Amino acid sequence: MAGKNLIRLTLALVLAVILGYGLFMLSNLSDSRPQSVIVVLKNKQITAQFWRVVTAGIHAAAEEYKLNVTLTGGSGESDVDGQIQAIEEAIRQKPDAIVLAAADYDRLVAVGEKIKKSGIALILIDSGIRSNVADSLITTNNAAAGTRAGQLLHHLLEPESSVAVISYVRGSQSAIDRESGVISGLQALNRERRTETFYCDDDQEKARQTVADLLRTHRDIGGIVGLNEVSSLGAAQAIDELGLNGKVKLVGFDNSYEEVAFLQKGTIQHMIVQMPFKIGYLGIQAASDVLNGKKIPPFIDTGSAAISKDNIDKDENQQILFPFLQE
């Protein structure tokens, strides 16, 4: 009898050791599992140069911080419903964090709050929402950049000239802030904005046609501000096609090879260039910091620079315009 009890005790101890070791290994596997981050962009079809560079920053940080990152989004900057659906699907996948470039300042508030209620960290990049629910917003100070654009344009114009503003989409915080910045910059210098803001729905051809029509019907317009890459390129095309290079002044936002070509040609006088690689990289870095219990600031300004034909060849501006050629 004593021998049987000893065998049972030995078996129980062996089973306990095996169970304990199994739980230990499962715990280690869980701890070593890469943390997951879903990045929800405005447009999952990444075509604009700005978003290609943002994405490069995202991938670089994902590799450095050993995060499992996937990208999704709507079908375009104006596809708010599509982005909301993409966020809902991301929540269902239960990642550790969501990094979001919000397509609409107001309509994404509810789903943003749902992210946090689901226990998922939320980092906003490029554009925010009308809520303080996010752990951090990482973007350009778009109001200040807009003010700078308006003031730069003012100093290029004759006193009687007026200004038109071409935006890319309604409802995006970045577009709202840039527009308000441009207007405040012009008003501070007593410059008239001739027309209401026009929206191209992030469609370059629509921006081109809108500007062409404006310049044919409003001969007093001497300057235009394009608030992103697409609106700026559309405006530049219209000015160039009408033979108004240098006569109608253009200040654009963002950076692409096509914009640089128009700058060199004299169609664009200034480009307000953001730091897209930094936006993407810091968005993922912030997610990693939050997941590891580190405190991060609620707002991180990634900066911008004004590039003109006069300063484009400076080393620091070449690094901003062509970051991948400097490595």
From TrEMBL:
One Gene Ontology term, aspect cellular component: cell envelope
Keywords for the protein's UniProt record, in alphabetical order: Signal
Localization (cell): Cell envelope
Residue stretches making up the Periplasmic binding protein domain: 43-295
UniProt keyword annotation of Signal present: yes
CDD domains: PBP1_ABC_sugar_binding-like
GO molecular function (one): carbohydrate binding
Signal sequence residues: none
Lineage top rank: taxon: Bacteria
Primary localisation category: other
SUPFAM superfamilies the UniProt entry points to: Periplasmic binding protein-like I
Any Pfam family: Peripla_BP_4
Entry keyword annotation includes Signal: yes
PANTHER family: D-ALLOSE-BINDING PERIPLASMIC PROTEIN-RELATED (PTHR46847:SF1)
Similarity section: Belongs to the bacterial solute-binding protein 2 family.
Protein name: Periplasmic binding protein domain-containing protein
Organism listed in the record: Paenibacillus ferrarius
